[in-house]
Amino acid sequence: MNAETALRDRLRLVLLHTTHPGNIGAAARAMKTMGLRDLHLVAPRHFPHADATALASGADDLLASAVVHETLDEAIADCHWVLGTSARLRSIPVPGLDARDAARAVVERLQQHEQQIAILFGQERSGLTNEQLGRCHRLVHIPTTPAFGSLNLAQSLQIVAYELRMAALEMDGLPPLPAREDPPAAREKLEGFYQHLQGVSRRIEFSDEKQSRSLQARWRRLFDRAEPSDTELHMLRGFLSAVEKKTRD
C-alpha cells in the first residue's frame, strides 16, 4: 500500500465539540483537497446543517460519510496512535512535534505496520481540554509568528493536511520501511489497562482519591511513550490480576 492510500484509508481526522457547522464544512473541503476522507465528529453542536454543506463546496460526500460519536473515547477506541493539535506545548507534559515532523511520523508509522491513526482538533475557542490531551501520544503545533498566532479550525486542518500529503508524496518515492512485528495496542485496550491499573493502585493503597488523578496522568505518559503491544498489555494485566488475587487471599 502506498503512502497516499494509507493516509486515505487509515488516518482519521477528529473534530471535537465543533460549535459552528460551517467549520465542519470548511474542514471537509480542506481534507478533500489533500486526498483525505475519514472525518469523525465528537458531539458537534449542529450537524448535519445547511451551513456545513454550503462551506464544504463540493466535499458533500465527506459530510455524508462523516461518523458522529458521543465521546472522544468512542471515536478513538480502535486507534493505535493519537495526535492532538495544540498551541499550549510548554504547559503540557506530552511530547510535541511541529506539523511537518508530525506528518512525516504519521506517514512512516502507516507504512511500517497496519494501524489506525487519529489527529484531534479541539473546539474553536478553547482547543483541546487537558483530559482530551491526555489521550494523545503526541501533540502537534503550527509554528505561527508569536505576534499573531490566530488560526481558525479549517486553516489549521488545511496546514496539517497539506503537510501529510507532502510527506506521503515524498515517502512514495523511497524504498518501503521495514514492518514492525508487534504493533502497539489500540486505544480501547490501553484505556482498559489504565482503569485496571488505577483500581489495583487503590486496592493496595499505593494511591488514594486525592493522588489518583495526577498519578494516573503519569502512568498514561509512561505507557503511552512505551506503546505496549497487545501481548505486552496482556502480560501487564495478568500481573495486575495476580496482585488482585493475592490481596483477596
Question: Would you spell out the secondary-structure blueprint of this structure?
Answer:
Blueprint: H1 3-10, E1 11-16, H2 21-33, E2 39-42, H3 50-56, H4 60-65, E3 67-69, H5 72-75, E4 81-85, E5 96-98, H6 99-112, E6 117-121, H7 130-133, E7 138-141, H8 153-171, H9 187-203, H10 209-226, H11 230-248
Parallel strand pairs: 1-2, 1-6, 2-3, 4-6, 4-7, 5-7
Helix pairs in contact: 1-6, 2-3, 2-8, 6-8, 9-10, 9-11
Structure explained in plain terms:
52% of the residues lie in helices and 12% in strands. The protein has helices spanning 3-10, 21-33, 50-56, 60-65, 72-75, 99-112, 130-133, 153-171, 187-203, 209-226, 230-248, and strands spanning 11-16, 39-42, 67-69, 81-85, 96-98, 117-121, 138-141. A seven-stranded parallel beta sheet has the order 3-2-1-6-4-7-5. The chain is globular and about 65 Å long. The N and C termini lie far apart (52 Å).
